[in-house]
Amino acid sequence: MFMELAEKIRENIKARIALVVCAGAAAAAGAVYLYFHDPHSYPLPCIFYLLTGFYCPGCGAGRACYSLLHLRFVDAFCYNPLMTILLPLIGLYIAVRALDWMVTGGNHVDRKVSVKLLVWILAIVLVYGVLRNIPVFPFTLLAPGGLWALIG
Question: What DSSP designation does 114 have?
């Protein structure tokens, strides 16, 4: 039954457009919510940090996204420099992939992305996750808000 529905959607451009528009609306609603939801007052908890006491590569991303939505780019970079750099690239990938699927019903984008590039990005994220937990300068600068020590 699910496969039949997926096949019908794949064949119907109006259904694909509707799904992409709905996904975009959900993302916009999330951005509007975050814009008005100050994570400094009501922090978004990180399960990894709560369980281990270590920062994950995404720790500080909620505050960084909040800062980006308020056009405070330096703040965003201080909270999570890697996410601030990768977020535009991830957004571009999602937009291009959604547009490709919406127009063609297929996936022509993933074949164009180098596997070596993805492995490098994964390695960088993992190394970043380890380095930001080393409690020695300059690695403490990678902790959420750590770059404020240089700026502020």
Answer: -
User: Which residues does 49 contact at the CB level (< 8 Å), separation at least 6?
Assistant: 55, 56, 59
Residues in Cβ contact with 101 at an 8 Å cutoff, skipping those fewer than 6 apart: 16, 20, 107
Q: Any idea which residue has 């300059």 for tokens? A: 138
Q: Tell me: the pLDDT tens digits for 56-91?
A: 999 998 899 999 999 999 999 999 999 999 999 999
Smallest CA-to-CA distance from 106 within 4, 10, 27, 8 is with 10
Tokens of 9: 């959607």
> What does each C-alpha distance from 129 to 2, 21, 38, 64 come to in angstroms?
38, 34, 25, 16
- Alpha-carbon span 18 to 102, nearest angstrom: 9
**Residue 29, both tokens:** 């609603």
What's the pLDDT at 146?
Answer: 87
Domain range enclosing 19: 2-151
Q: Distance between CA atoms of 125 and 119, rounded to whole angstroms?
A: 10
Number of domains, the chain: 1
Angle, nearest 10°, between helix axes 13-36 and 81-104? 160
Q: Are 107 and 100 in contact (CB under 8 A)?
A: yes
Distance CA 97, CA 91 (A): 10
Residue 89: per-residue pLDDT: 92
